[in-house]
Write a structure and sequence with these properties.
Blueprint: H1 3-21, E1 34-41, E2 46-52, E3 60-62, E4 68-74, E5 77-82, E6 88-94, E7 97-98, H2 103-107, E8 113-122, E9 128-140
Length: 145
């Protein structure tokens, strides 16, 4: 490889690598297999979040920022399933639960916030489910002091 070609590669690659390492708001927020919701929290803020994937204690990505809400406990959640005409066909609840049987909340020195969430998601054949509940967790990166 010629010296000038190496220099050109360095001129193009180094700035690109630096740009990719600078934290920016999540411009590529997940769009598939996600739950999108507004979380109204005890710190006085309402956060628009997306939770990608399926599973327990998944982090919620705060849209338009680099913040993540990491849950450590869930309050009781209520699930309401409606048919395509809007009639309620099922109501169920999940009990409150804490990660690690409560050990994470008890031993983690993070500043916790409690948030209430409500969202509606489509199901098969025109049915929908509305979910209402609360979640306790912490934001990372932490806000500047």
């Amino acid at each position: 490889m010629s010296t000038s070609l190496r220099r050109l590669s360095a001129v193009l690659v180094v700035p690109a690598a630096l740009l990719m390492s600078v934290p920016t708001p999540a411009s590529a927020d997940p769009t598939r297999h996600v739950i999108a919701a507004a979380a109204t929290c005890s710190d006085g803020n309402t956060y628009d979040v997306v939770v990608p994937g399926n599973g327990y204690y998944l982090p919620a990505l705060v849209t338009g920022s680099t913040q993540v809400h990491k849950p450590v406990a869930f309050g009781k959640f209520t699930f309401t399933v409606r048919d395509p005409e809007g009639a309620v066909v099922f109501v169920g609840t999940d009990p409150a639960t804490e990660q690690g049987g409560g050990n994470v909340l008890a031993r983690n020195p993070k500043t916790y916030i409690e948030c209430t969430v409500s969202f509606t998601a489509p199901l098969e054949d025109g049915f929908t489910v509305t979910v209402d509940g609360s979640v306790t967790g912490f934001l990372t990166p932490a806000a500047p002091r």
